[in-house]
Protein backbone atom coordinates (compact mmCIF):
# COMPACT_ATOMS: atom_id res chain seq x y z
CA UNK A 1 0.00 0.00 0.00
CA UNK A 2 1.54 3.27 -1.11
CA UNK A 3 0.46 6.58 0.33
CA UNK A 4 1.12 10.02 -1.09
CA UNK A 5 1.13 13.13 1.05
CA UNK A 6 -2.34 14.45 1.93
CA UNK A 7 -2.87 18.16 1.74
CA UNK A 8 -5.95 20.06 2.87
CA UNK A 9 -6.87 23.59 1.93
CA UNK A 10 -9.75 25.82 2.95
CA UNK A 11 -12.43 26.54 0.36
CA UNK A 12 -13.67 30.08 0.01
CA UNK A 13 -16.97 28.93 1.50
CA UNK A 14 -15.86 29.53 5.08
CA UNK A 15 -18.39 28.26 7.61
CA UNK A 16 -20.12 25.96 5.14
CA UNK A 17 -19.95 22.19 4.71
CA UNK A 18 -17.41 22.49 1.91
CA UNK A 19 -15.13 24.82 3.85
CA UNK A 20 -12.52 22.08 4.09
CA UNK A 21 -11.93 19.65 1.25
CA UNK A 22 -9.18 17.15 0.69
CA UNK A 23 -7.47 18.29 -2.47
CA UNK A 24 -4.44 16.10 -2.61
CA UNK A 25 -5.04 12.49 -1.83
CA UNK A 26 -3.64 9.46 -3.50
CA UNK A 27 -4.02 5.93 -2.23
CA UNK A 28 -2.63 3.13 -4.35
CA UNK A 29 -4.30 0.09 -2.92
CA UNK A 30 -3.62 -3.54 -3.62
CA UNK A 31 -7.08 -4.95 -2.99
CA UNK A 32 -7.45 -8.50 -1.82
CA UNK A 33 -10.41 -10.78 -1.45
CA UNK A 34 -12.68 -9.29 -4.13
CA UNK A 35 -14.99 -11.51 -6.12
CA UNK A 36 -15.19 -11.84 -9.87
CA UNK A 37 -18.97 -11.81 -10.01
CA UNK A 38 -19.07 -15.38 -11.30
CA UNK A 39 -22.62 -16.70 -11.40
CA UNK A 40 -21.59 -20.24 -10.53
CA UNK A 41 -23.31 -21.71 -7.50
CA UNK A 42 -20.10 -23.53 -6.52
CA UNK A 43 -18.38 -21.39 -3.81
CA UNK A 44 -15.04 -23.14 -4.29
CA UNK A 45 -15.12 -22.30 -7.96
CA UNK A 46 -15.86 -18.61 -7.17
CA UNK A 47 -12.99 -18.42 -4.68
CA UNK A 48 -10.63 -20.07 -7.15
CA UNK A 49 -11.58 -17.58 -9.84
CA UNK A 50 -11.01 -14.72 -7.40
CA UNK A 51 -7.60 -16.09 -6.38
CA UNK A 52 -6.63 -16.46 -10.03
CA UNK A 53 -7.50 -12.79 -10.64
CA UNK A 54 -5.45 -11.79 -7.60
CA UNK A 55 -2.48 -13.75 -8.82
CA UNK A 56 -2.68 -12.03 -12.21
CA UNK A 57 -3.23 -8.61 -10.58
CA UNK A 58 -6.43 -8.16 -12.56
CA UNK A 59 -8.34 -4.98 -11.55
CA UNK A 60 -11.99 -5.17 -10.51
CA UNK A 61 -14.43 -5.14 -13.43
CA UNK A 62 -15.98 -1.87 -14.60
CA UNK A 63 -19.64 -2.22 -13.61
CA UNK A 64 -22.03 0.56 -14.59
CA UNK A 65 -25.40 0.24 -12.89
CA UNK A 66 -27.91 2.60 -11.27
CA UNK A 67 -26.20 6.01 -10.87
CA UNK A 68 -23.11 4.43 -12.42
CA UNK A 69 -24.87 4.60 -15.79
CA UNK A 70 -24.37 8.38 -15.61
CA UNK A 71 -20.57 8.01 -15.41
CA UNK A 72 -18.91 8.87 -18.74
CA UNK A 73 -16.03 6.56 -19.67
CA UNK A 74 -14.20 9.55 -21.12
CA UNK A 75 -14.40 13.32 -20.59
CA UNK A 76 -12.36 15.20 -23.17
CA UNK A 77 -8.88 13.66 -22.72
CA UNK A 78 -9.70 12.36 -19.24
CA UNK A 79 -10.46 8.65 -18.91
CA UNK A 80 -12.03 6.71 -16.08
CA UNK A 81 -9.16 5.11 -14.18
CA UNK A 82 -10.78 3.21 -11.33
CA UNK A 83 -13.65 0.75 -11.17
CA UNK A 84 -16.86 2.39 -9.94
CA UNK A 85 -17.61 1.74 -6.27
CA UNK A 86 -21.19 1.74 -5.01
CA UNK A 87 -22.64 2.64 -1.63
CA UNK A 88 -26.16 2.86 -0.23
CA UNK A 89 -27.88 4.19 2.87
CA UNK A 90 -26.68 1.17 4.85
CA UNK A 91 -22.95 1.56 4.20
CA UNK A 92 -22.27 5.13 3.00
CA UNK A 93 -20.43 5.73 6.28
CA UNK A 94 -17.68 3.47 4.90
CA UNK A 95 -16.97 6.24 2.37
CA UNK A 96 -18.02 9.34 4.32
CA UNK A 97 -17.21 8.79 7.95
CA UNK A 98 -19.34 11.13 10.03
CA UNK A 99 -21.16 12.74 7.11
CA UNK A 100 -23.37 9.97 5.75
CA UNK A 101 -26.49 10.58 7.83
CA UNK A 102 -27.45 13.82 6.10
CA UNK A 103 -27.52 12.09 2.71
CA UNK A 104 -29.87 9.46 4.13
CA UNK A 105 -32.11 12.19 5.56
CA UNK A 106 -32.45 13.73 2.11
CA UNK A 107 -33.44 10.40 0.56
CA UNK A 108 -30.26 8.73 -0.68
CA UNK A 109 -30.92 5.52 -2.62
CA UNK A 110 -27.47 4.71 -4.00
CA UNK A 111 -24.26 6.49 -4.98
CA UNK A 112 -21.26 5.75 -7.13
CA UNK A 113 -17.71 7.09 -7.04
CA UNK A 114 -14.86 6.77 -9.51
CA UNK A 115 -11.66 8.51 -10.52
CA UNK A 116 -10.48 10.05 -13.80
CA UNK A 117 -6.98 10.82 -15.03
CA UNK A 118 -5.50 12.45 -18.11
CA UNK A 119 -2.20 11.43 -19.76
CA UNK A 120 -1.50 15.08 -20.55
CA UNK A 121 -1.97 16.38 -16.98
CA UNK A 122 0.38 14.53 -14.68
CA UNK A 123 -0.16 14.02 -10.96
CA UNK A 124 -3.77 15.17 -11.16
CA UNK A 125 -7.01 13.24 -10.73
CA UNK A 126 -10.69 14.11 -10.56
CA UNK A 127 -13.04 12.13 -8.35
CA UNK A 128 -16.65 11.97 -9.51
CA UNK A 129 -19.41 11.10 -7.02
CA UNK A 130 -23.00 10.74 -8.24
CA UNK A 131 -25.72 10.44 -5.61
CA UNK A 132 -29.17 9.16 -6.51
CA UNK A 133 -31.21 11.10 -3.94
CA UNK A 134 -34.50 9.49 -4.92
CA UNK A 135 -36.20 12.70 -6.11
CA UNK A 136 -35.35 16.10 -7.60
CA UNK A 137 -36.40 17.68 -4.30
CA UNK A 138 -33.88 15.51 -2.45
CA UNK A 139 -31.07 16.37 -4.87
CA UNK A 140 -31.90 20.07 -4.73
CA UNK A 141 -32.21 20.01 -0.94
CA UNK A 142 -28.94 18.22 -0.33
CA UNK A 143 -27.10 20.60 -2.67
CA UNK A 144 -28.62 23.65 -0.96
CA UNK A 145 -27.57 22.33 2.44
CA UNK A 146 -23.91 22.86 1.45
CA UNK A 147 -24.63 26.59 1.68
CA UNK A 148 -25.70 26.51 5.31
CA UNK A 149 -23.70 29.03 7.30
CA UNK A 150 -22.66 31.08 4.26
CA UNK A 151 -23.60 34.72 4.85
CA UNK A 152 -24.14 35.50 1.18
CA UNK A 153 -24.60 32.52 -1.17
CA UNK A 154 -25.42 34.61 -4.23
CA UNK A 155 -21.98 34.27 -5.83
CA UNK A 156 -21.44 30.51 -5.48
CA UNK A 157 -22.13 29.85 -9.19
CA UNK A 158 -20.27 32.91 -10.43
CA UNK A 159 -18.36 32.36 -13.67
CA UNK A 160 -20.12 29.12 -14.54
CA UNK A 161 -22.04 28.75 -17.80
CA UNK A 162 -25.83 28.48 -17.78
CA UNK A 163 -27.56 26.33 -16.56
CA UNK A 164 -24.76 25.30 -14.19
CA UNK A 165 -24.55 28.78 -12.68
CA UNK A 166 -27.99 28.55 -11.06
CA UNK A 167 -27.64 25.01 -9.71
CA UNK A 168 -23.98 24.65 -8.80
CA UNK A 169 -21.50 25.55 -6.08
CA UNK A 170 -17.91 26.08 -7.24
CA UNK A 171 -15.26 25.93 -4.53
CA UNK A 172 -11.47 25.89 -4.59
CA UNK A 173 -10.85 22.41 -5.95
CA UNK A 174 -14.36 21.01 -5.74
CA UNK A 175 -17.80 21.54 -7.22
CA UNK A 176 -21.34 20.42 -6.43
CA UNK A 177 -24.32 20.48 -8.78
CA UNK A 178 -27.64 18.69 -9.23
CA UNK A 179 -29.92 17.60 -12.04
CA UNK A 180 -33.15 15.64 -11.77
CA UNK A 181 -32.77 13.28 -8.78
CA UNK A 182 -28.97 13.21 -8.92
CA UNK A 183 -26.45 15.28 -6.94
CA UNK A 184 -22.94 15.37 -8.39
CA UNK A 185 -19.84 16.11 -6.31
CA UNK A 186 -16.50 16.64 -8.10
CA UNK A 187 -13.11 16.91 -6.39
CA UNK A 188 -9.81 17.86 -8.02
CA UNK A 189 -6.73 16.22 -6.47
CA UNK A 190 -3.26 17.53 -7.29
CA UNK A 191 -0.53 15.17 -6.08
CA UNK A 192 2.45 17.24 -7.24
CA UNK A 193 4.76 18.63 -4.51
CA UNK A 194 4.43 22.17 -5.92
CA UNK A 195 0.64 22.25 -5.68
CA UNK A 196 -0.80 25.30 -3.94
CA UNK A 197 -4.25 26.52 -3.05
CA UNK A 198 -4.11 29.03 -5.89
CA UNK A 199 -3.02 26.49 -8.51
CA UNK A 200 -5.70 24.03 -7.41
CA UNK A 201 -8.39 26.72 -7.50
CA UNK A 202 -7.38 27.77 -11.01
CA UNK A 203 -7.29 24.19 -12.26
CA UNK A 204 -10.65 23.47 -10.64
CA UNK A 205 -12.33 26.43 -12.33
CA UNK A 206 -11.07 25.20 -15.70
CA UNK A 207 -11.60 21.45 -15.37
CA UNK A 208 -14.55 20.80 -13.06
CA UNK A 209 -17.26 22.66 -15.06
CA UNK A 210 -16.39 20.44 -18.04
CA UNK A 211 -16.87 17.35 -15.89
CA UNK A 212 -20.16 18.68 -14.50
CA UNK A 213 -21.53 19.50 -17.95
CA UNK A 214 -20.54 16.08 -19.33
CA UNK A 215 -22.13 14.15 -16.47
CA UNK A 216 -25.27 16.31 -16.59
CA UNK A 217 -25.59 15.65 -20.32
CA UNK A 218 -26.16 11.97 -19.50
CA UNK A 219 -29.12 12.87 -17.27
CA UNK A 220 -32.20 13.41 -19.41
CA UNK A 221 -34.68 15.24 -17.18
CA UNK A 222 -33.98 18.70 -15.82
CA UNK A 223 -36.76 19.85 -13.47
CA UNK A 224 -36.47 23.26 -11.79
CA UNK A 225 -36.38 23.78 -8.02
CA UNK A 226 -39.72 23.29 -6.24
CA UNK A 227 -42.40 25.62 -7.64
CA UNK A 228 -43.47 26.70 -4.14
CA UNK A 229 -40.54 29.12 -4.04
CA UNK A 230 -42.52 31.27 -6.46
CA UNK A 231 -44.87 32.13 -3.58
CA UNK A 232 -42.12 33.68 -1.44
CA UNK A 233 -41.60 37.47 -1.65
CA UNK A 234 -38.78 38.63 -3.91
CA UNK A 235 -37.86 41.93 -2.22
CA UNK A 236 -34.68 41.70 -0.10
CA UNK A 237 -34.29 38.01 -0.92
CA UNK A 238 -30.78 36.55 -0.93
CA UNK A 239 -30.16 34.83 -4.26
CA UNK A 240 -29.47 31.07 -3.99
CA UNK A 241 -30.75 30.99 -0.38
CA UNK A 242 -33.76 28.75 -1.14
CA UNK A 243 -33.64 25.44 0.73
CA UNK A 244 -35.77 22.37 1.38
CA UNK A 245 -35.63 20.61 4.75
CA UNK A 246 -36.81 16.99 5.04
CA UNK A 247 -37.61 17.40 8.74
CA UNK A 248 -37.42 19.84 11.69
CA UNK A 249 -38.26 22.97 9.68
CA UNK A 250 -36.53 25.96 11.39
CA UNK A 251 -35.51 23.48 14.09
CA UNK A 252 -39.09 22.93 15.29
CA UNK A 253 -40.26 19.31 15.45
CA UNK A 254 -43.95 20.11 15.08
CA UNK A 255 -43.50 21.66 11.64
CA UNK A 256 -41.95 18.64 9.89
CA UNK A 257 -40.62 19.12 6.36
CA UNK A 258 -40.68 22.44 4.53
CA UNK A 259 -39.01 25.30 2.71
CA UNK A 260 -36.99 28.36 3.70
CA UNK A 261 -35.76 31.51 1.98
CA UNK A 262 -33.36 34.01 3.54
CA UNK A 263 -33.67 37.82 3.43
CA UNK A 264 -31.36 40.71 4.35
CA UNK A 265 -32.01 44.45 4.69
CA UNK A 266 -28.97 46.23 6.06
CA UNK A 267 -28.32 44.90 9.56
CA UNK A 268 -31.66 43.08 9.64
CA UNK A 269 -31.98 39.49 8.54
CA UNK A 270 -34.86 37.04 8.56
CA UNK A 271 -36.03 33.70 7.20
CA UNK A 272 -39.40 33.13 5.58
CA UNK A 273 -40.63 29.55 5.78
CA UNK A 274 -43.51 27.29 4.79
CA UNK A 275 -44.31 23.69 5.60
CA UNK A 276 -44.98 21.09 2.99
CA UNK A 277 -48.64 20.99 1.97
CA UNK A 278 -50.46 19.24 4.78
CA UNK A 279 -53.56 17.06 4.58
CA UNK A 280 -56.08 19.84 5.30
CA UNK A 281 -56.47 23.12 7.15
CA UNK A 282 -57.28 21.31 10.41
CA UNK A 283 -53.89 19.56 10.21
CA UNK A 284 -52.25 22.94 9.55
CA UNK A 285 -53.90 24.41 12.64
CA UNK A 286 -52.74 21.46 14.71
CA UNK A 287 -49.15 21.95 13.48
CA UNK A 288 -49.43 25.67 14.24
CA UNK A 289 -50.61 24.91 17.78
CA UNK A 290 -47.72 22.53 18.44
CA UNK A 291 -45.12 24.93 17.06
CA UNK A 292 -46.21 28.36 18.33
CA UNK A 293 -44.64 27.83 21.76
CA UNK A 294 -41.39 26.35 20.46
CA UNK A 295 -38.07 27.44 21.92
CA UNK A 296 -36.26 29.31 19.15
CA UNK A 297 -33.42 30.65 21.32
CA UNK A 298 -34.92 34.07 21.87
CA UNK A 299 -35.43 34.92 18.21
CA UNK A 300 -38.62 36.66 17.13
CA UNK A 301 -41.07 34.24 15.49
CA UNK A 302 -44.48 34.71 13.88
CA UNK A 303 -46.53 31.73 12.63
CA UNK A 304 -49.62 31.81 10.41
CA UNK A 305 -51.95 29.21 8.96
CA UNK A 306 -52.29 29.53 5.17
CA UNK A 307 -54.71 26.85 4.09
CA UNK A 308 -52.78 23.57 4.04
CA UNK A 309 -49.50 25.26 4.98
CA UNK A 310 -48.07 26.79 8.11
CA UNK A 311 -46.00 29.83 7.10
CA UNK A 312 -44.03 32.35 9.07
CA UNK A 313 -41.06 34.63 9.68
CA UNK A 314 -38.20 34.03 12.10
CA UNK A 315 -35.40 36.41 13.00
CA UNK A 316 -32.04 35.41 11.50
CA UNK A 317 -29.17 36.92 13.43
CA UNK A 318 -28.86 39.02 16.56
CA UNK A 319 -30.49 42.26 15.40
CA UNK A 320 -34.14 42.42 16.58
CA UNK A 321 -36.68 42.89 13.79
CA UNK A 322 -39.25 44.75 15.87
CA UNK A 323 -42.85 43.69 16.31
CA UNK A 324 -44.30 45.82 13.50
CA UNK A 325 -41.77 44.74 10.90
CA UNK A 326 -42.05 41.02 11.61
CA UNK A 327 -45.85 41.24 11.66
CA UNK A 328 -45.82 43.08 8.30
CA UNK A 329 -43.45 40.51 6.81
CA UNK A 330 -45.62 37.62 8.03
CA UNK A 331 -48.76 39.30 6.65
CA UNK A 332 -47.14 39.68 3.23
CA UNK A 333 -46.08 36.03 3.22
CA UNK A 334 -49.53 34.90 4.35
CA UNK A 335 -51.22 36.93 1.61
CA UNK A 336 -48.95 35.44 -1.03
CA UNK A 337 -49.63 31.86 0.08
CA UNK A 338 -53.35 32.47 0.53
CA UNK A 339 -53.67 33.91 -2.97
CA UNK A 340 -51.35 31.31 -4.47
CA UNK A 341 -53.29 28.39 -2.99
CA UNK A 342 -56.60 29.51 -4.51
CA UNK A 343 -57.80 27.49 -7.52
CA UNK A 344 -57.29 29.22 -10.84
CA UNK A 345 -60.36 30.33 -12.83
Q: Key terms for this structure?
A:
345 residues; Protein Transport Mog1p, Chain A; alpha+beta
Notes on the structure:
There is one protein chain. With 345 residues, the protein is an alpha+beta fold. The protein has two domains: 2-30 and 62-217, no CATH class; 227-340, 3-Layer(aba) Sandwich (Protein Transport Mog1p, Chain A). It is 24% helix and 27% strand. The protein has seven helices and 17 strands. The protein has helices spanning 43-55, 101-105, 136-145, 164-167, 197-217, 281-291, 323-340, and strands at residues 2-3, 7-10, 20-24, 27-28, 74-75, 78-80, 85-88, 110-118, 121-132, 169-170, 174-179, 182-190, 243-245, 258-265, 268-275, 301-306, 309-315. Strands 5, 6, 7, 8, 9, 10, 11 and 12 form an eight-stranded antiparallel sheet that branches. The longest helix has 21 residues, at 197-217. The protein is elongated and about 70 Å long.
Amino acid sequence: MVFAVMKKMHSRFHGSEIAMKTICLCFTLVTIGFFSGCSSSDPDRSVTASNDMEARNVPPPMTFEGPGKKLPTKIDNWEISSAPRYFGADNLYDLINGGAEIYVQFGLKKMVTSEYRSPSIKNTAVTVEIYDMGSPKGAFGRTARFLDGLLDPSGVGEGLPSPLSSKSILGDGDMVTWKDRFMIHLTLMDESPTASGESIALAGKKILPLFAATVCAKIENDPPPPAIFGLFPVEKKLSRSEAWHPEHLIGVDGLGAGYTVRYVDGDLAWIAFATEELTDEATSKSAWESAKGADVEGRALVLKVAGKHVVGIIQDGNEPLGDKLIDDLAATLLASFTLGSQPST
